[in-house]
């Protein structure tokens, strides 16, 4: 491609290519059908990874975001960190030495979709995780956690199971039983989180965790000696976590029956007051599973994924990875999930609790801002602009699918070295060469980047000369 061609002609060709790519995405995956395909998911896909098994987590998230954009071409995730903000006419790459990854974009639209965008989910969940940690560390309140689940089958549709779960949780917190529980156990407030996994054996598994903040110390568990004295069906001694669990289970099972579902007494609702378990859940909130093993505590910490997926389940972003490996059924499952969870709240604080804990009432709105540089106010003030890309240059980056390559090119601790490397990377890209981060040292050692031989990237546009 001849760069000396008219910029207008080149930009028009790039626009045509990007528009065609977006339409191709829509045509390939619309309408969505055969959501209940009988082919088993895990036997068709390699074992899916968790984020601690990924060497380059940022690239992994950007790759998953591209897959989500392919499956959801008409949703905001398809424009996230791609479209330039209406108020801007360029894209900036920021450098901040205090960040582990050093580089961020500015002036791009972000979708703020925690359910469907791995990049935004990481950013938003990190802020919510920080607030949960602050809340759990308050001296005058102690956290306890209640987990709500229900029995389901593989053929159950996600929207039906999710609606039943959420309605049962709503009823749990709206009746006189809840008021009695709050009074008896000194509940100051609660935070409810919503999660979902999928397994071949049992289908969709939506579930809720609710952190209860009680005045004073956390409720103790009954000793083995105390439990030995409790007859089957009797209430455990008052003032214990076991008594709270007993009271909550009675209400929960009735609420499930009203929705046409049920659960076992032991598994439908559980209460934990163990400090380490609660801190572990908070530390892993919103993150992908840490390992591929299974233990009884993994349901609590979002890591319940067996080696072959028969005991636990896959997270939605692992379904995205399976789709990227060629499993179309996993892609259809992700679309079903995205449609069902759209507009749902990931985290719900009870009224007045944030103010009681001294937390910013508007922090969530800031996280969900449609235009961001992904830095907080202090970081943004300390950040430096490495390079500024015109709209045409940014379209070259998009056409080459090189957003993450650009960030990695500039991800150096020293700002001057980072700026030089980024400029050379952009120069190479504009000359028709897409340089991966593995080739950056060769690029930096060359006096003239145009003399360095790399694998040529053929842009899908025509020469206008």
Notes on the protein architecture:
The strands form three sheets. This protein has a five-stranded antiparallel sheet with strand order 7-4-6-5-8, with helices on both faces. Strands 2-1-10 form a three-stranded antiparallel sheet. It has a two-stranded antiparallel sheet with strand order 3-9. It has 465 residues and is α+β, with helices and mostly antiparallel strands. The chain has helices at residues 7-28, 57-71, 118-136, 158-172, 176-185, 224-228, 241-258, 275-283, 298-301, 316-324, 328-341, 353-356, 363-367, 377-382, 391-399, 403-409, 415-430, 440-445; strands spanning 90-95, 103-106, 108-109, 141-148, 187-199, 203-215, 269-272, 347-349, 371-372, 384-390.
Share of β-strand residues: 5-15%
The H/E string reads HHEEEHEHHEEHHEHHHHEHHEHEHHHH
Instruction: Report the uncertain regions.
Output: 1-5, 28-40, 289-312, 456-465
Q: What gap, in angstroms, lies between the N and C termini? A: 9 Å
Strand order of the largest sheet: 7-4-6-5-8
The share of residues in helices is 40-55%
How many strand segments? 10
Radius of gyration: 25 Å
Number of domains: 2
Structural class: alpha+beta
Could you describe the largest sheet, including whether it forms a barrel? 5 strands, antiparallel
